[in-house]
UniProtKB/TrEMBL annotation:
The purine nucleoside phosphorylases catalyze the phosphorolytic breakdown of the N-glycosidic bond in the beta-(deoxy)ribonucleoside molecules, with the formation of the corresponding free purine bases and pentose-1-phosphate. Belongs to the PNP/MTAP phosphorylase family. Its EC number is 2.4.2.1. The keyword Glycosyltransferase applies. Keywords: Glycosyltransferase, Transferase. This is Purine nucleoside phosphorylase. InterPro entries: Nucleoside_phosphorylase_d, Nucleoside_phosphorylase_sf, Pur_Nuc_Pase_Ino/Guo-sp, Purine_phosphorylase, Purine_phosphorylase-2_CS. GO terms for cellular component: cytoplasm. Pathway: Purine metabolism; purine nucleoside salvage. One of its GO terms (molecular function) is purine-nucleoside phosphorylase activity. One of its GO terms (biological process) is nucleoside metabolic process. Homotrimer.
Amino acid sequence: MQHLQEAVAFIQTQTQHFAPSTGIILGTGLGALAKEVEIQHEISYADIPHFPVSTVESHAGRLLLGTLSGQKVVVLQGRFHYYEGYSMEQVVFPVRVMKLLGIKQLFVSNAAGGLNPEFQISDLMLIDDHINLLPSNPLIGPNDAQLGPRFPDMYAAYDPALLARARAAAVALGQNETTQRGVYVAVPGPMLETPAEYRYLRTIGADAVGMSTVPEVIAARHLGLPVLAVSVITDLCYPGQLKPVVIADILAAAAVAEPRLTALMKAVLAAE
Ligand code: HPA
């Protein structure tokens, strides 16, 4: 808590107490939304006390504060993955910082493999539930009651009202055909899955698989924040479509979907 408070105090001093209402975490290859923000303040993670620093060169590692669709937002440009070697506490540190800066809701995006045979490359999937197959979670350890309850409920981890708004926005934007809905399963990575693992993940009820998001969502629910999370389907992982994954192809598929994701998130924000 003291580390959180020091990080928050630093950001507040740098930004004249800018108070964002929405926090946004952008996934791999999905940074374009940041370009739409009318930026008022930009802070390198490296300058924020106790903030983890991105190990991935391509991740910018900056906190952006500004306005998007008429709403005050804070955008994490570069997220922290468990496979990079961070502790769960480090992975979710930015979520807790954003909450203490004043956010009332959290939007998250990620790149994910499609397990549902109805999905196509570059579809969006509105996450309506998740399965955590990471070996830990950010709430393990003594509970800090100032952050949230010991046993947070996960009945509607993905906010039904935000999901309804995202669905309506997809229809209004003519994106209904490419906007799916489903269950995201988080795995540790960093390797992709074997064919048998993909079959297993489909069997246990997942529609898409990725290596992020679930820790942040657990921390957000612990903090009482409503969450909207969207996967971009970057590769197809069901029988008949499975082939070796090339990271360049994943980034290309993310780039194709990015304008739709950006439009969708902006529309949901504008509907506030
Ligand atoms: N598996 C895990 N993570 C991923 C995948 C995948 O197939 N695609 C994008 N992120």
